[in-house]
Design a protein that fits this description.
Blueprint lengths: L3 E2 L2 E4 L1 H15 L1 H14 L8 H26 E3 L13 E7 L6 E6 L11 E2 L4 H6 L7 E5 L5 E11 L3
Length: 165
Amino acid sequence: MTQTSENVTWLTQEAYNKLRDELEYLTGPARTEIAAKIAAAREEGDLRENGGYHAAKEEQGKQELRVRQLTQLLEKAKVGEAPAADGVVAPGMVVTIAFDGDEDDTLTFLLASREYASSDIETYSPQSPLGSGVTGHAVGDDAEYELPNGKKASVRILKAEPYTG
């Protein structure tokens, strides 16, 4: 899982390997594929009205942006262990909170960077207002965080377990 502190991202070995493999694919076979698409589109003639060429160049730009993001992430990454199952909220944990202590108004989410975003569970960054507000608190604790309008919101930590997905 990840934990960002002063531009250092903590990753499990599995997560690091997954991101490294993606980077290797994007800088190898994927670059070759997009270069071939661009070359084929270029041979079709007038580039000003060539939709295939412009689409391929846009795809190339998105791919290169992802390469830069992965490169920066992996350069600053530290490989470590998943968080302990000690009930203290930390990045890499699935957290359940109750808003204003109301156990009928709850939210369960993964506290992690967007690389771990999943359709199975909502993901909040450790740097988000909610993420930074609950980090370090234990099950049963009340925590506060600042809303976009500047007001404070209160939550109670109901559960904090390491993510196993």
